[in-house]
Amino acid sequence: MPIGRNSFIQMTKLSNVKGRITYISSHAKQENLYAVYETTERKFWRELAKCNQEEFAKSGTEGKCIEARELIIALPESFTEYQPDRLLQLFTNHFKQNYGTECIAALHHNKRKTNYHIHLIFAERKLLDEPIIKIASRNMFYDENGKHVRTKKEILGEDGEIREGCSIVKKGEVYEKKLFTAKDERFKCNSFLDEVKHSYTDLINIYVQDEKQKLQVFERGSVYLATKKIGKNNPKAQEIEADNQKRREWNRAVDMALISGVPEPKIMEVKRKEITEPIRESIARRGNRPRLFSRVVTVAVEALEFLIASVLFKKPREVPKQTEQTEAEHPEHVAENSTAAVKTTKEEKAEPEQPKMTRLASKYPKLFKVNKELEDQNGAIQQKQKQLSVKKKELSEVTGWFKGRKKKELQKEIDELKSQIRDMKDYLPRIVQKIGYRSVQEFLKDFKDSQTEYSQYRTAIEKWKKKTGKEPVAHGIRAKLAEKKQEIQNEQKNKHHTRSQNKDRGAR
What we know:
Shape: elongated
Number of helices: 12
Number of strands: 10
Strand order of the largest sheet: 1-3-5-4-2
């Protein structure tokens, strides 16, 4: 499903990957370069280019060697409001997560600043876990084309000397060093680009502010990841606990997203694109890999945190139209300070009945206070995260071996902040659990529903007051208690008045 002009993704083949990397990542060559992000060191690309050229020469194929491939991804102009380096990191890690290859990307504008786009270069090969090194068991001879020949005579010229371009690998020397896997055939398929277009279109849709541009039907279900139970003497207890830690990390991010005002459908979409689908595809291709799950969730949390930041930046949270009511303002307390309950007359029976408050609406003042506590805690966490970002940046700028002490101090501060943030996030669900809710998601659903019903009730009461010219009479248990309290107070006043009268009679 296309997204119109916003969904433009083009792929090209690169015959000079080193030159292309320099071109897209250089401020001298790019007038509007906003960010560069790399998943590996630059020497990786040098070795990759060398490997591809050697393999191409061996194959004898005509044309140009393909050293890497490049995607050009057009972004909506509204994305200029997002932090460039985080935006680029998100889109780059999304590709690496899905396909497992190293990438380097740059975020650009064209000269007229009408085309906001990403250049993403990716490798078709992966580094081997262990390099394959072959040692010559005897002298080996190679002609001008790098082709292995059997005898020395085949590389000699008429003068008996070794021809130019030919070479000899002596016994005991390395004649072949393999650092990379074979090229992934997926990238040559016509279906690959179509798959990438759909993947990035879905990702873009998450961050597009105009909901009318949504292309996907959102998944139903919980926004959380369920943790796994660890039985007694389970040999995989350590592995399961590590898995659960990553799940809790995601759940913490979900709580913050919900409190920050991120719609559940968007959270579900991040979960689907960054967790569910990558895991499903990985299992289908390579089987179950516990370590992969950790990396997947890390990228997903990163994506969700970026979404939180974008929502808070674009749309600061609106103050609820219906604010917390004081006891004097709350309709249920109207009768508490009255001298007597209003008695209904025959004429009043024909008048419209006073609107009654629903059970959920009556919970709103209490839920409002709890929601305020959630928002305050969420705000405090975000402040801590800003402090963490500052410290991380400060650490990255400390260079030189003689500044080891400074690095240690900063790292200690970073670790302490991380611990504080984790504890503060863990407290979020406890706030709602104190009043009987299992999760922040469950609480917020009730809170929003109670807010709606309470607002409807207040509107109905105001209309009833205008029509009847009367003040509302309290209902429910609290009202009955108030009436009983008033009756007791009235009885005490009457008794006191009677005693005073009796004393006055005795005096006369």
